[in-house]
Amino acid sequence: MRRTVQIAGGVESLFGTLDENVKLLESALHITTELQDDRRIAIEGEAAQVDRAVRILKEYNQLVEEGRTLSNGDVRAMIRVATQDPKTTLRQVLEPGAPARPRAFGKKNVTPKSPNQRAYMEAIEKHDMVFAVGPGGTGKTYLAVAMAVSALLTKQADRIILARPAVEAGERLGFLPGTLQQKIDPYMRPLYDALDDLLEDTVFLKYLERGTIEVAPLAYMRGRTLSNAFVILDEAQNATAEQLKMFLTRMGSASRMVVAGDATQVDLPSGARSGLRDAARRLSGVEDVATVELGEGDVVRHPLVARIIRAYAQDAPP
To answer: Which residue of 9, 56, 110, 126 has the fewest C-beta atoms within 10 A of its own C-beta?
Structure first.
């Protein structure tokens, strides 16, 4: 079957660098495309797959005609999700969860790059507590921070609280030079990096100085009640069951929590039990709690990362 579609706007963002976006569409749907002189794309393949490609391109045209500015990365993410999940439209990729209020992510747009990432963002929209379990590079931390920034900028939260267990493979904090804050900062760096990527420097520093954004070790949460806040616990696999219970019970009124971690990368001392899977299991079925599983197909770092994760999973000890 062969059909043609007129393309709205410039073809550069649709095709991507070295035509990577169209190549993604072709490989996912097993079709071939040809750009014609009159800004039309000819699509050839099985009827059902050609129809899906036409639908995706028409949805792209509609977004462009509405004045949406779409980067190569945005288009690539939309195509990847839409081809993996036939029920998902490009608009739903850009607007996961269909929030009641306008969403703002700061200085850049944030788009899920897989169906599971979209489900993760929707779960955060719909539930007060979300567990995200999956390997590194799947967007667990970055998407949670992006949703927190969005909640802060749209006044759905008064502050952001980001916590991490100060547990590491190898050395202990006491052996590191410097003040306590200087010792802690390296373990908070991934959270700072995500915030820095989403907020202008002056805005980020202002929020830190005012305490609107707080980045602190998990131990600093004991005895507190975290109200009107968007609270994220990163690297939760390095929290013991007792620590995680302590953290979850800090939740105050009008707050949301995201607990993210990789159950295969536990750095706790020998004999200590990770609380991540334990908490997710105990709270499964509890109203307003959701768990999202992310996997190698959701890795958004270098393509080699997914293959590394697969290799380690296949060779895992019994």
So the answer is: 126
252-265 pLDDT per residue, tens: 999 999 999 999 88
pTM beyond 0.90: no
Residues 67 and 94: their CA atoms lie apart, in Å, by: 14
DSSP track, 277-301? HHHHHHHTT-TTEEEEE--GGG--S
Higher-pLDDT residue of 12, 215: 215
Q: How confident is the model at residue 176 (pLDDT cuts 50, 70, 90)?
A: low
